[in-house]
Write a structure and sequence with these properties.
By secondary structure, this protein is of the alpha/beta class. Helix content is about 50%, strand content about 15%. It contains ten helices and nine strands. The chain has a five-stranded parallel sheet, with helices on both faces. A four-stranded parallel sheet has the order 7-8-6-9, covered by helices on one side. Helix 3 links the parallel strand 2 and strand 3. The longest helix has about 50 residues. The protein is elongated and about 75 Å long. The termini are far apart.
Length: about 350
Amino acid sequence: MCIRDRHWRDHRRRRRGQQDMTEHAQEDQNERERADGAAHVSTGSTTEKAEATAPAIPELVIISGMSGAGRSTAAKCLEDLGWFVVDNLPPALIPTMVELGARSQGNVARIAVVVDVRGRRFFDNLRESLADLAAKHVTRRIVFLESSDDALVRRFESVRRPHPLQGDGRIVDGIAAERDLLRELRGDADLVIDTSSLNVHELRAKMDAQFAGDEEPELRATVMSFGFKYGLPVDADLVVDCRFLPNPHWVPELRPFTGLNEEVSDYVFDQPGAKEFLNQYTELLQLIAAGYRREGKRYVTIAVGCTGGKHRSVAMSEKLAARLATEGVETVLVHRDMGRE
């Protein structure tokens, strides 16, 4: 082999080696790009997943104001509207409560907290808690219940209880001390309601106007069958007497059964006046329910009675509850005395 051929062969080997190195380098670069791309996609997917699963921060309302001005009524109104209400929570714990609500996976979307001078040793922490909530972008509103001195004095005297801050002094001394303590919070309030000339229903109407939106207040009904011989239900708002219908107890083949059995129900509603009573009483309840909503009443208990609470009242309660449910009334059915015989 001549020297030129040997040089040419060595040159070709070097060229092939450079090409191999270039190809390997390109493959390494491609591999790195694919890895970077996969990492980028993975990072983006994780970020999107984290954003998708980020806990929703609950809406927050802080209820405060003068003792005797109606804080409890305002809180009960929000509770009836579906808010999670905490009474007399130390202000320092408000951010913790919001955080717990955020972890509830949407089960606690709206929180109302009542803050008042009963927790006065914690009251100085309120401003710090509000600043913490603002930093966490929590939507919060402050509702302040106000009332005149004369109205507050009358209310405390009517219930014969001292003002929380009066100590050894008079009621007016406690009111003055409370006004001074709450002055700054009143200035920060988003909504101030003067209850001096308001009754309970009027205050509820104002709260509904602010927080119920355009939705009609929901009415919840409990339909309860009972036996007169065991006494009237003490929590009944309306009482229905089914003893005008013949008693299945005196029909031997129906006596062992209850109003839940089809045979008993058919017997009851085949009697003269039974279906007519159900239809007309349902219409009457629609009229009553509309008035309850206007007055801010959220709950009603309808007691349906017969002698023993086993046949007629059970059958009528079943039909009445079904009618109310079709009218959009949230209904709970209870048979108080069935099975007592």
